[in-house]
Design goal:
Layout (H helix, E strand, L loop, with lengths): L3 E4 L9 H16 L3 E4 L13 H11 L23 H13 L3 E4 L3 H13 L22 H9 L5 E4 L6 E6 L3 E6 L7 E3 L7 H11 L4 E5 L6 H11 L5 E5 L2 E2 L9 H7 L21 H9 L14 H7 L10 E2 L2 H13 L3 H11 L8 H11 L8 H5 L12 H7 L4 H12 L6 H15 L3 H13 L7 H8 L1 H14 L1
Parallel strand pairs: 1-2, 8-9, 10-11
Antiparallel strand pairs: 3-4, 4-7, 5-6
């Protein structure tokens, strides 16, 4: 059987980067095995449904270039791909469980169950709806068949629960955690169908995975506690379960707990791929999809390759379940920034110029060639496209203020005269980097002054600080007229 995997998010809000990583692992695993990657929308929880969330999820995957082979938008032979459109299937299969004695109707009201919990709590006990309590509750196991029929015919609200037999040792295997053993006495009789007529995740995902012929379930570790129940459901239906792999959590930067939206707000970094309800995502913050995926891939998975910078194709070739770590992985925004920087350096100056102009409206008045020329001088220092203007504004605008600490050390009383004289020496040159360097060397020798006595105040006049590229390269970029203007302005200001 060919590999078939699925990413099955719920449209209850924006896609978190943890979800994007889950989608990525499923995608690369499928591609490695020449299999099929499916997007299934699990929208049975109507109380938490958020308008626009499904479209947002699909757009995130499209931006990340991990588009599914089958989905609500690209239907295959295993649809529908929204659970809300598959209700008749779940009803059919839950009835089979009732008929073979593996599930039952429960008519207990919320108030009755709350009373049971309160009574247990008063005795310092924990109430669980299971083999030890169900015969004393209102369900089709404890009531007569006539009473059950009466309740059903009178449309009395009910849920359908899975019947878990006591004292069973459930031996499981997870591709990440390996052997797992659970006693059935620790499990309660989970609800499979809710009183609103909608299936729970437990039933729906098992039925869907079987009918869609899913071979491997790669999902977050929050579902690991549900694995015994899901195995029992497969057993109850007489189906062979898929292989399971539960991914480690993405942790906060301090390593304490799961990464949340709040952590992003505090740390000043995104947690969503794209903008959601005016909350900027990674895309809007200047991160490309390729380095984000590269970063996420290595956030919980290690490869035998020494290379950190990996394309999607390389990830697909190298990915293995054995490389997934058990422990949570700490989110490191600085590491992501490093990845983004590496990818930006790999872009052509022309492509990067387009990115920079898109992120900085202030550059719209500049030509693409002019922006590209600036990029050639600053490329190695760009982490996100907006850095070109935010951090290197001096390429396009004369400094309006100067680093006072630097000025106090480097701008001397004779600096204006020295710079003016130096510029006079350069008048007859073509203003190439080589000519400017030779000119300063000659001026330094004839004037018997150190090169630094001219270089430092010149950089201060052109940039406003002592940072930036080669002074000669910057002078060539700015041109004679602009250089003269900036030197004169510095002389009048400092």
């Amino acid at each position: 059987m060919s590999v078939r995997v699925r990413f099955a998010p719920s449209p209850t809000g924006p896609l978190h980067i943890g979800g994007l990583r889950t989608a990525l692992y499923n995608y690369v695993f499928a591609k490695q095995h020449k299999g099929v990657f499916i997007l299934r929308i699990e929208d049975t929880d109507q109380t938490r449904y958020v308008e626009g969330a499904e479209a947002y999820i699909q757009e995130c995957l499209r931006w990340a270039q991990i588009e599914p082979d089958e989905s609500p938008l690209h239907a295959g032979s295993y649809g529908p791909y929204r659970q809300s459109e598959r209700l008749h299937m779940y009803q059919e299969y839950v009835q089979k469980l009732i008929e073979n004695g593996r599930a039952y109707y429960a008519f207990d009201t919320a108030e009755e169950l709350d009373q049971k919990r309160a009574e247990a709590s008063a005795s310092k006990l924990h109430f669980s709806y299971d083999s030890s309590t169900r015969n004393g509750l209102r369900n089709s196991l404890s009531l007569s068949s006539d009473e059950v029929d009466r309740l059903l015919s009178s449309n009395t609200p009910y849920v359908i629960r899975f019947k878990i037999e006591p004292d069973q040792q459930i031996n499981l295997y997870d591709e990440v955690r390996e052997n797992v053993s659970v006693n059935s006495n620790t499990l309660d009789d989970k609800v499979l169908f809710k009183s609103d007529g909608m299936p729970t995740y437990h039933l729906a995902n098992v039925v869907d995975d079987h009918l869609m012929e899913i071979t491997h379930v790669i999902r977050g570790e929050e579902w690991l506690p549900s694995l015994p129940l899901h195995h029992l459901l497969y057993e109850a239906f007489g189906w062979t379960p898929p292989a399971f792999a539960h991914l480690p959590l993405i942790l906060r930067p301090d390593g304490k707990g799961k990464l949340s939206k709040r952590d992003g707000e505090i740390g000043g970094f995104p947690v969503y791929p794209l903008e959601w309800k005016e909350i900027p995502g990674f895309k809007e913050s200047g991160f490309l999809s390729a380095p984000l995926l590269n970063f996420l891939a290595l956030l919980g998975w290690s490869t035998k390759s020494d290379d950190e910078v990996l394309s999607l194709q390389q990830m697909s070739a190298l990915f293995s379940m054995q490389g997934i770590q058990k422990a949570g992985a700490r989110f490191d925004i600085e590491k992501l920034r490093w990845f983004n920087q590496q990818y930006l350096q790999g872009l052509s100056d022309e492509s990067l110029a387009q990115q920079c102009m898109a992120f900085s409206p202030e550059l719209q008045s500049q030509t693409a060639d002019r922006v590209g020329a600036a990029i050639s001088l600053a490329k190695e220092r760009l982490v996100v496209p907006q850095d070109l203007y935010n951090e290197h504004r001096y390429f396009f605008e004369a400094p309006s203020e100067y680093d006072q600490k630097a000025a106090s050390k480097q701008w001397k009383e004779d600096s204006p005269n020295l710079l003016t004289e130096f510029l006079k020496q350069c008048e007859k040159t073509s203003y190439t980097e080589e000519e400017l360097e030779a000119c300063l060397k000659a001026y330094s020798e004839t004037s018997e002054i150190g090169v630094g006595k001219v270089m430092a105040p010149l950089r201060l006049a052109l940039v406003g600080s002592l940072k930036g590229p080669s002074v000669y390269a910057l002078m060539h970029f700015l041109g004679k007229e602009e250089v003269a203007k900036r030197v004169a302005n510095a002389a009048n200001t400092l």
